[in-house]
Design brief:
Blueprint: H1 3-11, E1 18-25, H2 28-38, E2 42-49, E3 52-61, E4 70-75, E5 89-98, H3 102-111, E6 117-121, E7 124-130, E8 136-142, E9 164-171, H4 174-184, E10 187-193, E11 196-201, E12 209-214, E13 228-235, H5 238-250, E14 259-260, E15 264-270, E16 276-284, H6 309-315
Parallel strand pairs: 1-4, 5-8, 9-12, 13-16
Antiparallel strand pairs: 1-13, 2-3, 3-4, 5-9, 6-7, 7-8, 10-11, 11-12, 14-15, 15-16
The structure holds zinc ion.
Length: 320
Amino acid sequence: MNQTTLTQNRTHHPVAGIHHITAVASHPRRNIAFYTGALGLRLVKKTVNFDDPSAYHLYYGDESGAPGSIVTFFYWPDYAGKGRIGSGQTTVLSFSAPAGSLDAWALRLSAKGITTQRIQRFGEDVLSLVDPDGIPVELVAVPTDERRGWSGAEVPADMALRGLHTAVLVVRDGKPTETLLTRDMGYRVVRKEGNRTRLEAGPGGSGRLADVISDPSAPQGTGGVGTIHHIAWRVGDDDEQQTMQARLTAAGFQVSSVRDRQYFRSIYYRERGGILFEIATDTPGFAVDEDPSTLGQALKLPPQFESARAEIERALPALA
Ligand code: ZN
């Protein structure tokens, strides 16, 4: 092993930022209209909830659904219960937008009847809004983000969202969450503003950030429609995931076995503040079962459900 390899091994940490965020919505059609029609993301995978194939699981992202660009939704009808946003949750879908694009975004969203609010945080310009189910969404103007947004829909390239920006984590006491992120997940603290601490992983920057908000008076969050279900952090491959599984287990966390999610493999654990964390692999990605040029168009089922395809398709609501 040469000196360069040794140095890389010492400084390398498997967790490289955000992989995806999964939330709960009520109506798939309304959800698609907002995330593709209004925000201009690409629907990169149409599949079912692997734990309940009677419901859709839709994935949105950039052109290829690159790790860090992905938001996904489970659909529970309204009567199944609205959740409450609060402590123990990831609370915001925060996207990176090109610098100087927020005025155009405000106009575009206003034309669609969506109200926005302009705020400043950590010196960043932020456009704040809510999705049709009440999930907070933020578009953050980022001057330095090499990622390219998808402009295949009606959003022009100079406005296209490039992926997730930061992970907003709300807990009553931020200390244990920050300790997990810094001691076991390779993050470091970079800024503080009020009760918000910003951390970053690897080379840092958009998509590799996490904001821990300590709010002792926040109501306890409850899962359901209009809330974020979990956040997944990315690692390159199965070996790196195994390293993290061992490290987190040694640190006292109850870590699940590896689950095959068809487009990535996942392990799950709950951090001390109550937020459900997942560690997902970058491999194999969304082109594993359909052509990159037609991602998201056909209903894709994992092998275990293929024999029940006709029944599953009959039970799913129409999307068109
Ligand atoms: Zn997930």
